[in-house]
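subagent[fold] <- orchestrator: predict structure for attached chain, return tokens only, no commentary.
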Amino acid sequence: MPADELSLSVLLLAGGQGRRVGGQDKGLLSWHGKPLIAHLFRQVRGLTDDLIISCNRNTELYRQWGDHLVPDREPDYPGPMAGLCAGLALARHPLVLVLPCDAPGIDSSLLAPWLALARQAPGLPTLIRQGGQWEPLFAVLPKALGEAFEKAWLAGERSPKRVILSGEVQAYDCPAHDPRLANLNTLALLDSYQGN
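subagent[fold] -> orchestrator:
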């Protein structure tokens, strides 16, 4: 891995309650014979020496796919904002690639140009914008943004999108319905999605 590539941490968000999948741990649901988290691990492992998984259960299983595991600081699955606060605080590098655990279609054709764009303006969040819609959980965030997340959290804000879009943001545009960005957040989607 080139030295300049080591400036990136990766945060995989797998701390949700899984309400749409009957309370199951989404990151561990099987797709094409492997847990969803394993598909993401395969794509991002070579990008970083600091792979963080935000998870609130099954830590003994998640340990094989992450360098660090981080739970939410509050109980009862308070949402992705909590995972972002905890993950950004733990990250070791100035940039943090954030991905949800239920998007196994992510691949190098998306990651390489997106990360290249983010490195051109490392002080700005670089969000995926899919068909004109912002995707706040597909983001490359400056670790320094963690302070804004903490302040917003303490003020009662629970929307990562509002926090990120409150400042200047860089977009990486993708077409609507890009299969690489499919969120398999229901059992029906998990069964029907074939990938790109």
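orchestrator: received. Logging for downstream: The domain at 3-192 is CATH 3.90.550.10 (Spore Coat Polysaccharide Biosynthesis Protein SpsA; Chain A). The helical segments are 36-44, 59-62, 80-90, 108-120, 146-154, 160-164, 187-192.
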